Automatic annotation (TrEMBL):
GO terms for biological process: methylation. Its EC number is 2.1.1.176. It comes from Rheinheimera soli. It catalyses: cytidine(967) in 16S rRNA + S-adenosyl-L-methionine = 5-methylcytidine(967) in 16S rRNA + S-adenosyl-L-homocysteine + H(+). It is found in: Cytoplasm. NCBIfam families: PRK10901.1, PRK14902.1, rsmB. It comes from the Bacteria. The active site is at C375 (nucleophile). Belongs to the class I-like SAM-binding methyltransferase superfamily. RsmB/NOP family. This is 16S rRNA (cytosine(967)-C(5))-methyltransferase. S-adenosyl-L-methionine binds at C254, C255, A256, P257, G258, G259, K260, D277, D303, D322. SUPFAM superfamilies: NusB-like (SSF48013), S-adenosyl-L-methionine-dependent methyltransferases (SSF53335).
Length: 432
């Protein structure tokens, strides 16, 4: 028997915000408790929604409650947010949203608070104007922490509001067709036969498909047979820009969960690919993806920042450096990032990126190419990082990304051509 969906959602949100756990991790565990696919989807919708609108939900509670619930009652505070989100943003009937939320309090051992929770939710039902935030502080208006807003205002003075608005949108579903198993045309036909509409936004990336509506990917045609992978359109540019060829020696230096590793091999199946990541648990996903898609790579648990421990005398024709970053470009896809990431995280990340780039560079052969990538929109992780590296390395040359993209670097912003935020720059090692 499934547990109360609202109680699971409240517990998951509490674990993210108060305990610093990943939403992906806690949501997966919560969904296991649900029997119905529709309930699993609703659970995800509520958790994502609370993460997206947390400051506004908190502000409404401040208006309607004498003081927030604390200590062991904190999960019940998040249960109120769950109820508020349903009333304001979902098509759940009011009586069901209120009734199920109050009932969930009993499962969370909050029987004595059912009256309070019922009163708060019914107040919002009677007074929807409590969700008017026109004159509220910017973190409440835009549902982002103040440090992210400040960073975006400084980096993008003309369109910071647009970036924040895009972060509030639901990310679309992109697929990457495995061209070793089928063709884009054949897969589009298979989707159409199931009544699923999709498009090919990029002529130079024919395997990149954008679905008009989200779907349970495990139920799409050919999932078990490795006909496709789920990968955002921005991330699908990595293997394309890298340009690895058959017989090339290729390093994917921060590979987990393996989507880009697999794409490299789909484009160059005879390439010798070394995929490494320092977290052995995350490498399980890499093995799973390689196996499902029928691909083969050398996979290693290793730290890209310390190649002396694993590289030996290896050198590479192509290196993909998708470095650890703030992930500020994928907030719409992972709305918990805005609450898990802190301003104090940025400087150590920038230093780590510099260290990885500096230490991996000697492994690149002369005349070979390295692609630097992040899913960040912060200049200090992107353009400024490349500029600093070029100033210190006379044998590094910034080159165009591809014939279709002659620019020397590309900052994709969230929502641009329906993609996630991403950054790319391509470096060639000269012989001097």
């Amino acid at each position: 028997m499934s547990k109360n969906l609202r109680a699971l959602a409240a517990t998951a949100c509490y674990q993210v915000v108060d305990q610093g756990k990943s939403l992906s991790e806690v949501l997966h565990k919560a969904q296991i408790e649900m029997d119905s696919p529709l309930d699993k989807a609703l659970l995800q919708e509520i958790c994502f929604g609370v993460m997206r609108y947390l400051p506004q939900l908190e502000t409404v509670c401040q208006k309607l409650m004498d003081k927030p619930l604390v200590k062991h009652l904190r999960p019940l505070q998040f249960l109120i947010y769950v109820g508020l989100y349903q009333l304001k943003f979902l098509r759940v009937p009011d009586h069901a949203a209120i009734g199920e939320t109050v009932e969930a309090a009993r499962e969370l051992k909050g029987q004595s608070l059912t009256g309070l929770i019922n009163a708060v939710l019914r107040s919002v039902q009677r007074k929807p104007e409590v969700f008017d935030f026109q004159d509220a502080p910017l973190p409440v208006q835009y549902n982002h922490p103040s440090w992210i807003i400040t960073q975006l205002q400084q980096a993008y003075p003309d369109n910071w509001q647009q970036i924040l608005d895009e972060n509030q949108q639901k990310a679309p579903l992109w697929l990457r067709v495995n061209q070793l198993r089928t063709t884009p045309e054949a897969y589009l036909a298979a989707l159409a036969a199931e009544g699923i509409a999709a498009s090919q936004p990029f002529a130079y990336l024919p395997c990149a498909l954008l679905l008009e509506q989200a779907s349970d990917v495990t139920l799409l045609p050919g999932y078990a047979d490795g006909w496709f992978s789920v990968q955002d359109g921005a991330a699908q540019h990595a293997a394309y820009f890298l340009g690895a060829r058959n017989k090339d020696s290729v390093l994917d230096a921060c590979c987990a969960p393996g989507g880009k590793t697999c794409h490299i091999l789909e484009l160059a199946p005879e390439a010798d690919v070394l995929a490494l990541d320092k977290d052995p648990r995350r490498l399980d996903r890499v093995y799973d993806n390689l196996d499902r898609l029928g691909l083969d790579a050398r996979v290693m648990t290793a730290d890209a920042a310390d190649p002396d421990d694993w590289a030996g005398f290896q050198t590479f024709d192509r290196i993909l450096l998708d470095v650890p970053c703030s992930a500020t470009g994928v907030i719409r896809r992972h709305p918990d990032i805005r609450w898990l990431r802190k301003k104090t995280d940025i400087a150590p990340l920038v230093e780590l990126q510099q260290q990885i780039l500096r230490n991996i560079w000697p492994l690149l052969k002369p005349d070979a190419e390295l692609l630097y990538a992040t899913c960040s929109v912060l200049p200090e992780e992107n353009q400024q990082q490349i500029e600093a590296f070029l100033a210190d390395h006379a044998d590094a040359q910034l080159i165009p990304l591809a014939d279709s993209h002659p620019q020397l670097h590309w900052q994709i912003l969230p929502g641009q051509q329906q993609m996630d935020g991403f950054f790319y720059a391509k470096l060639r090692k000269t012989k001097r």
